[in-house]
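ingest -> validate -> predict -> emit
validate: passed (alphabet ok, no gaps, 307 aa)
predict: started
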Amino acid sequence: MKITLTNTSLHLRPRLSGWVAGCMLATAAIGPLGCNSEDPPASMAQVRDNVQPEVQTSAVVDEVGGKSQAPELLNAEVILNAHVQASGGTKAIAAFERVYLEGSLEVLRQNIKGTARQWWRDGKFYGEQELLGIGTSKAGFDGKVVWASDPILGMRMLDGKERELYLRSGSLSLCHEWKQHFVRAETLGETEIDGHKLIEVRLESPMGQKVILGFDVSSNILFSTKFTQVGPTGETEVLALSEDYRAVEGVMFPHKTTLRVGGLMEIVQKVTKIEVNGTFEGVDFGQPGGREVVAADPTKQPANTDG
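emit:
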């Protein structure tokens, strides 16, 4: 993927490397989204009409008068399942055994360009990006170890919330596999972002991390994702907006994602190439050798003993 930015101050550059790498993986986590072009999905209103009452959440009740103050909300799992069907269905998603992506990045109003690529196979993943003036960042999961490497922090084995974030980023379809990564799903209600009327579902991970997904009420397509980017430099709130859906082997993928990072910057990533079930030559999901691996927590890293 490629990038274009302007005037990134020196003190922001170390954090930028981690932000871009982490955010790209996090949005890739949402995987294939959109509707099956051959079988357009029902709107959220039609889904609501076809749902049995017992799978809907209770209406909000006035504590004094006992009257409903809002229409009943769809059960969160119903919304997530409707999105899976809108994506092309479980059968189409299951046919994806290997996926390769590349594209372009642009960090607006900054002065950085770069490229990025990502490989996925059976839950394992490997991604790399190169930012001009910063260097190459990599991350992967080989089935056991989640690792990341960047020019600022070096090679790290990830644990805790950061590991959890990267693991769900390795999901090809988070809505389809949400029970593997979250312990709770709750419908929040309707909202509007950038002119899109959405219904939001909040997912909570075993470690308490929350991800809020916003689905377009007219198409069931996922438009917005709110999450907290975690890492050694702290936590940053991110809003990801997914657009430009195109069919790939019967499944719809967003080809443009805009990341609004902590109110500090806006990153636009565009997918320019997707290969499904191709042959991966020379791709190693394990951590590269030849360098000392340090703990993800900076306080646990070995002290510098150089004079």
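The domain at 10-52+73-273 is CATH 2.50.20 (outer membrane lipoprotein receptor (LolB), chain A).
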